[in-house]
Amino acid sequence: MDGVIGRIIGRVFNKNWKGKAVTDKNAWLLSERLLSCIIKEKLGDPKVFYYILLDIGRSYCFRINPKCRVCPCLQVCSYAKNLAEN
Ligand code: SF4
Hints:
Blueprint: H1 3-12, H2 25-40, H3 46-59, H4 78-85
The protein binds iron/sulfur cluster.
Residues 8, 11-12, 60-61, 66-68, 71, 73-74, 77, 79-80 line the site of iron/sulfur cluster.
């Protein structure tokens, strides 16, 4: 798993991976479930979803000082919600 993808998924779903997402079994399980939902619900091409996440990581979800206020994931992101509450 790409580290950026792991960071976004972890933040949105409020998951703390053990070590890096790339080596965490739960990170892989969650991403597989997301992929299954995308396919099952016919939400679009999973490759496009992947590239969208990479764009979000490159444009908003920085490791340090993410730009949550302007991120398209703001409404569904646990990390951003926690920031707003604290
Ligand atoms: S809202 Fe913030 S933490 Fe959540 S995905 Fe966007 S930039 Fe990352």
